[in-house]
Protein 1
Amino acid sequence: MRRHKTAKPMRRCIACRESKPQDELIRFVLRDDGPAVDTDGRADGRGFYLCRSEECATTAIKRKAFNRACRRNVEEDKVRRLIEQVLDNDRGGINAKES
Ligand SMILES: [Zn+2]
């Protein structure tokens, strides 16, 4: 049986375009010098989202989804570094959350 949980804000991934709860996505924010990871989800600015998965990371890079989201050309290396930083963190569990 399906339970109704409190509605979470849903956001769309720029790679697979699926809507997911915000906490399953990485939030990026566009700064003057390009996109940055918004770790606590509260930074000002134009934001966009990507799933916390290697698959969507690869898709985003391949399809230049960042360029579209930022409306400018973003270096692929920069994108890759940003994403790796987040995925590494997830894997290492440095940010282990209390539940
Ligand atoms: Zn995705």
Protein 2
Amino acid sequence: MAHAVPTMPVALDVNTLAQFVDPLPVPEIVPPQGHRSSPTDPPKSVPFYRIKAQAIASKVHRDLPPTKFWSFGPSTPGPTFETRAGEGLLVEWVNALPNEHFLPIDRTIHGAENDKPAVRTVVHLHGAKTRPESDGYPEDWIVPGKSSLYYYPNQQDAAMLWYHDHAIGINRLNIYAGLFGAFFIRDGVEEALNLPKGKYELPLLLYDRLLTRDGQLLYPVSPDPESPWVSEVSGNAILVNGKLFPYLDVEPRSYRFRLLNASNARIYHLSFANDAPFHQIGTDQGLLPAPVLLRELEIAPGERADLVVDFSEHRGAQLVLKSDALVIMQFRVSAGKAIETSSLPSALRPIAKIPESQAVETRLLTLDEFVNKAGKPAMLLLNASHWKLPVTEKPVLGSTEIWTLINPTNDTHPIHLHLVRFQILDRQPYEPWLFQTKRQLHFIGPPEPPAPNEAGWKDTVQAYSRMVTRIIVPFEGFLGRYVWHCHILEHEDNEMMRPFEVIPRA
Ligand SMILES: [Cu+2]
């Protein structure tokens, strides 16, 4: 009997759609459903939230039918959390998804084998300092009908974090389906600065998707039906807070935009079409020491950027935000008078540079790509080690380490460590062949310090191609098992992810 050959649905040509016909949505701030006792010693009464991962349909554009998504709420992205540093909260993450996945699972990928349920979720709060049992370990997934109760102490500086699925082997599909949202921690340092706030502060969650002609999510597959995994997915439609080509009406004054790259693989090079300058005031883990004036911003998957844009010079104008040649969204600046109520101070939050001498351990860690017989990427690893091998990175709680990320591949890999925040020391070009054959680090250029807009606390670092990227990491917080991984989700799933374990001092 002949097998039916599945036909690839035809991709939408987004250039046929009218631009700037949908207003930018802003995900709602989720109210707590009451208070409960925290799992701390002593316990305290903390806000309690119940969040349901569910199948929804949402219109991404005026002229497209509703798109089927999975989301942590009735709309996508999921609702936004707002909390304060040191104020813990509890979330019951409920898996209320259907029993079948609507995106193509590769059963040859680790953790997604035939004996595993198709639909599994586990939630990680990216950037949070959380105990391991609430961190969303990739194997801690739950099936439809189940839930997990996670506690977030939020004992850390003000920052934009984001929650997203982290289920092993299908993470790229679950996030692509829409399982993510924003999480803001506030603190007194930030509030004392008089930055734009209230309706003048907005999250911008950027993610690209491939859409079919009838507006449905298309997740591409390889020509091999036995292993449909592809090495990177970039879409034709760039969504901002769930809309394609949205517009935002703004007053001629300053706005604060909290930007997140929630894409599977795309690195954005953001700028305004008229080359308007803007300031970056914060990065992944909070405020920078000082505002950095930019005309272009590069942001990789998992990274966040805290931006201030002053529209007062653009009264009556329409500014288009783009990434290279791709149009993302439009800002319509009103012509009327506006009152500037915020200010941009020259100093934001002091950040002490960690001296290299503080590090008690330096680890050389490689980022490896393996190709198949056809020369196509078949698998990616950290330190040439599969996920299931014993844990090799065991930092001592309270100690500082230097992680030297050696990237012989042709790609930038955004490397994310759970639990911790770190500083970038430098990046330096090296000769990959000498390292691969003799394990000798031979540098072929001077070390480059981080750019001013990276010179703050980070939790995701772009490890550039054919460069050695060094980060210095204080392992503070909790004991136990966490993960570090590439945030290109296709890489992470196949198997560019490894555990690390924070151990007690001997
Ligand atoms: Cu990668």
